[in-house]
Amino acid sequence: MDTSFRLFPDAASDMADQVDRLYFFLLAVSSFFTLLIFVLIVFFVLKYRRGAKVNRYLTPGKSVLALELTWSLIPLGLTMIMFGWGANLFLKLHDSPPDPIEINVLARRWFWRMQHSNGKREDQALHIPVGQPVKLRMISEDVIHSFYVPAFRVKQDVLPGRYTTLGFEPNKVGTFHLFCAEYCGDNHSGMKGQIIVMEPAEYAEWLQGGPSEAPEVAGKKLFEEYRCASCHTSPVNPRCPPLEGLYGRTVKLTDGRTVIADDDYLRRSIVDPAAEVVAGFQPIMPTFKGQLGEESIFALTAYLKTLEAPTPGAGQAGEAAIGDTPPSDTDSKEADSKEAGPEPAPSRDDEPRLPAAPSLDPPRDPSPPEPPSKENPAS
Amino acid sequence: MSTAELPKRHYLNADYNIWSWLLTTDHKRIGILYMISLTLFFFVGGAAAILFRVELLTPEADLVVSPTYNRLFTLHGVVMVFFFLVPSIPAVLGNFLIPMMIGARDLAFPRLNLLSWYLFMAGGLLAIWAIVRGGVDTGWTFYTPYSTTESNSQVMAMAVGVFVAGFSSILTGLNIIVTTHTMRTQGMTWFRLPLFVWAHYATSIIMVLGTPVLAISLVLIALERGLGIGVFDPKLGGDPLLFQHLFWFYSHPAVYIMILPSMAVVSEIIPCFSRKPIFGYKMIALSSVAIAVLGFLVWGHHMFVSGQSVFAGLIFSFLSMLVAIPSAVKVFNWTATLYKGSISLETPMLYALGFIGLFTLGGLTGLFLATLAVDVHVHDTYFIVAHFHYIMVGGAVMGYLGGIHFWWPKMTGRMYPEWWGRISAVIVFVGFNLTFFPQFVLGYLGMPRRYHIYPEEFQVLNVMSSAGASILGLGYLLPLCYLIWSLKYGKVAGPNPWKATGLEWTTPSPPSTFNFDEPPVVTEPAYNYPPLDDSSLPHETSDPTASTPS
Ligand code: HEM
Ligand SMILES: [Cu+2]
């Protein structure tokens, strides 16, 4: 990273170049008006200073409407150009390009933890290949942070309790700043790192080095460890909605709403299962809030995404799928093609590993396998 | 400026003991009370700024450690916003002038007015107490869940302080609204009101409608901290973005609470020192109201990267662009007022012209922030710090200082030393630009705000900014010194040293406790300066009778 004095930031993504172009347009417009006002004021002050012998006669009643309209409509036009141009780029920024490299980002005071698709982790640094779109799925474990890479001209707040995403496509190899831009306490200004953009080949090599455990594999282990399977088994347990093929589908809830089973939904169903109960089921699932850290949830959802829908006709309890969007199969393919199986090397996972008891909160709960029930699943 | 004698009895010497001040219901005395307390707060907030600006001279943390730094900028932000900027012009100049400008003896609710000062002081003392007890490190924005779960210190006391001060601002607003509606003297129609009154009317609407929302958000913070109810903290089932919506729903319009009164001052000063009616009176009056209304619709432009929906981002960006129009119209109107005027550059005029320059730059950079894709990059960087200082310090404080100088002779009966006044205006302008212009560059380079440790390549610009800050500090100290000096040694001013129009100038300086012996009758529009011809205005003629082209 070049640390010498400069007046303009690095530009290392397409977005950066486009934002800069818009910025220069804004700069030109504002310089023009600043200069205009400045010159007019100085000129009037000098010319019409008290005591100067000049013509001060104003034609009475001369219409000023034209003037007032001009100086309202021209700024209006200009601001509409700014709006349109800025909105257009903003929409582009929020478009997801096909087949991005997906990376999970976990923010905690005061570090950034990145988890790559094969489970490789790194802190305070993010390695990515040049020329390929990247999509970050981000969440915070405490307060609001903000993922900011000036060289890409992108920024997105990272919230607790909800995933936000950020996409970009670097077009220059190099090392760039990563900052936390939302004030998060004492060491806020220490919550920074580096974005290291590499040639794709180098990146591939880098990605394979070091210990990693594919998140799906880690997720499977957690699934067993926390005895999720005691209820969510297949063949289907009538008391619990099956999870196979759930990801990406439309789910109908008891209260009549429907939701898409995306990452956020899966996450909420784990930490707050009682809030969105699938139509036809009782709220008997215990919450895992406080037991599973966000990283484990990343892993669990990665595992859930690999569960393919059973082939039709296989006696599936037609739980909730109405929209029946097929599960996005990129994920499952990815999982299949995972070569060199999971390395068991325990990676640094410093979240509290609680004993595998299903739940800590007694009242609502349930040792999952319960006697067959009076109520039956819908349809 | 002929016979130089102060009136024998006026509001300042009507009574001498301390209780006559602490229990006064005279709007002018209450204005002075506010002025004294605000000056105090301003220098407390300023001292914090100087401290952290010195810290920022180097990329490392060598003067203060991070918790101290965080408390300093919070102190600076909270005090400057809630205990200086929001009350500044309305509480000091508004209080002092509005009744006189509309020909009334006092505000509609004099005792309520006194109560608002006490509430303000109570809030201020609570805030100071919070600082003495260890300080708060949330920033003046109190973002949750940080403020409810992590911030270690005196958040409750600080929130209560701001809450209480909020009521002071609601009461002031109410008082001004009712006064404007009911206390206008005979002949003072709406479109004869000085623009100062118009702008305060608009400001008061914002105060009355917006401040309760701030109060609610603070109560919710207190409840969440104290009782653990889950409003904002997702761990308790709350929504972290809800606070930002509530907060900005007040705090964005609050920016107009800070700037509209300042525009009001400028709209009085420019015609007076150009000896011309203001250009486009109605447009300026109505644009104040337009700004007040539109100001309520744009809070989401603080949240483009917060995680709110893309669609919301588009709407807020669009609406924000519209606010630019009435603001631009005002700038053009002021400039056009100078055309063919008879311009003299006394201190208030220098401050007013400085205001136009800084406000223009602050406003234009606001367009960068309303433009979605650009804001994504500069949000929460020093670009923001520079932008809001151009508006709030460059705009609001320049207007405040201009107004203080303009009405100083009215308030005290004495002139400030003109030469020193002009020097201070120039120093403030230069120091200001040197302090804050480099921060635009820093922001586009990507330096996040609220950082006290930063990458080396940002140092040169930070040093420039800190150097500017010391000049600016000096610029702010000067008026404090010579204005105090002038209380005793200043030239006696006479009722109308500027030959200005407006009912306040028809009273003696300082005015008597009840302003007017007889309610005045108004027969002409505001700013009815006599038409100028091809020569300068002889200094003595005034007393306008003829009507003027508009
Ligand atoms: C009337 C005068 C001023 C007002 C109203 C004002 C207002 C503010 C506000 C509201 C903030 C935001 C605090 C936060 O982010 O929580 C701030 C930050 C800041 N102010 Fe001022 N300010 C004033 C004068 C000054 C002066 C004179 C200086 C320089 C000497 C200064 C330097 C700064 C800096 C550097 C920051 C950024 C702090 C940070 O983000 O870490 N301000 N100011
Ligand atoms: Cu952070």
UniProtKB/TrEMBL annotation, chain A:
The EC number(s) this enzyme carries: 7.1.1.9
Main location: membrane
GO MF term list: copper ion binding; cytochrome-c oxidase activity; heme binding; oxidoreductase activity
InterPro entries: CcO_II, CcO_II-like_C, Copper_CuA, Cupredoxin, Cyt_c-like_dom, Cyt_c-like_dom_sf, Cyt_c_oxidase_su2, Cyt_c_oxidase_su2_TM_sf
Classification via Pfam families: COX2, Cytochrom_C
A biological process from GO: ATP synthesis coupled electron transport
Region called Disordered, residue ranges: 311-379
CDD domains xrefs: CuRO_HCO_II_like_2
Keywords: Copper, Electron transport, Heme, Iron, Membrane, Metal-binding, Oxidoreductase, Respiratory chain, Translocase, Transmembrane, Transmembrane helix, Transport
Membrane-traversing stretches: 22-46, 67-91
Membrane topology: Multi-pass membrane protein
Cytochrome oxidase subunit II copper A binding domain ranges (all copies): 98-209
Location within or outside the cell: Membrane
EC class: translocase
CC per GO annotation: membrane
Compositionally biased tracts (Basic and acidic residues): 330-353
Domain Cytochrome c: 214-308
Protein family according to the UniProt entry: Belongs to the cytochrome c oxidase subunit 2 family.
Function text: Subunits I and II form the functional core of the enzyme complex. Electrons originating in cytochrome c are transferred via heme a and Cu(A) to the binuclear center formed by heme a3 and Cu(B).
Protein name: cytochrome-c oxidase
Organism this protein belongs to: Lignipirellula cremea
TrEMBL record, chain B:
Annotated transmembrane regions: 32-52, 72-93, 114-136, 156-178, 198-223, 243-266, 278-299, 311-329, 350-370, 382-407, 419-441, 461-485
Coiled coil: none
Renumbered residue ranges of the record's region Disordered: 509-550
GO cellular component: plasma membrane
rRNA processing recorded as keyword: no
PROSITE patterns for the chain: COX1, COX1_CUB
Pathway(s): Energy metabolism; oxidative phosphorylation
The keyword Magnesium is assigned to this record: no
Biological process according to GO: electron transport coupled proton transport; oxidative phosphorylation; respiratory electron transport chain
Function: Cytochrome c oxidase is the component of the respiratory chain that catalyzes the reduction of oxygen to water. Subunits 1-3 form the functional core of the enzyme complex. CO I is the catalytic subunit of the enzyme. Electrons originating in cytochrome c are transferred via the copper A center of subunit 2 and heme A of subunit 1 to the bimetallic center formed by heme A3 and copper B.
Name the record gives this protein: Cytochrome c oxidase subunit 1
Species, as recorded: Lignipirellula cremea
